[in-house]
Amino acid sequence: MKPIPAARDAWPEIEAAIDAARRSRIIRPEIALDDVPAPVRLAAHGLAINGEILDDHDNELAHGRFVLLHEPGGQSEWLGNTRVVVFVHAALEPELAVDPFLLEVGWDWLLEAIARHDAEVVAHSGTVSRSGSQSFGDIAGRPAEGAIEIRASWTVAPAQAASSVLAWCDLLATAAGLIPLGDGVQSLPRRP
């Protein structure tokens, strides 16, 4: 892997690009985004965003977190100076939770989302896990439940930080089971 060269402190440009991406119509309106405190002491600069997707009855379909860390001088483990860390948790149909290919498919969702936004990444890594539960005894009537969790991190050039936010939003939407939108297609805002 070729490292991304460290450069001057690009934090103001990174913040502006991410803010512009969040205000654009590119992010699906089904995704509610909230700023949360970024981790401290991991890098000179950081930001964190929580995301949530609810169905029409306000049941959670998926939630996650996007964290961006920027160290102007770079960090050797990152192979660059801007690191993205993402988390996505989504409820699944019980049949999907036991699919033997689910973990590979979850990782493919991430790679496809990154590719869709032309984010050039290095040093990417992560895990995909699943969980399921079946009730027994006096609560045997409850429906079976399943979930997928995707945790990943990667390094990008500062100019690609906004693309990583968009990729994370796409991953969140895919995990929630939202129908993919074609190129140039925007979804309509949810009715109140």
How would you describe this structure to a colleague?
The protein has 4 helices and 6 strands; from the N terminus they run αββββααββα. The protein is of the alpha+beta class. It has a 6-stranded antiparallel beta sheet with strand order 1-2-3-4-6-5. The protein is elongated.
List key phrases describing it:
4 helices; 6 strands; alpha+beta; 192 residues
Mean pLDDT: 87
Helicity level, as a percent range?
A: 10-25%
Uncertain stretches: 185-192
Largest sheet: 6 strands, antiparallel
Order of helices and strands: HEEEEHHEEH
The largest beta-sheet arranges its strands as 1-2-3-4-6-5
Question: What number of structural domains do the residues give?
Answer: 1
| Coarse shape | elongated
Into which percentage range does the β-strand content fall?
Answer: 35-45%
SS-based structural class? Answer: alpha+beta
Number of strands: 6
Secondary structure: elements and pairs:
Blueprint: H1 11-23, E1 31-36, E2 45-54, E3 60-75, E4 80-92, H2 94-97, H3 102-116, E5 121-133, E6 145-156, H4 161-175
Helix pairs in contact: 1-4, 3-4
What would a concise description of this structure say?
By secondary structure, the chain is of the alpha+beta class. The protein is built from four helices and six strands; from the N terminus they run αββββααββα.
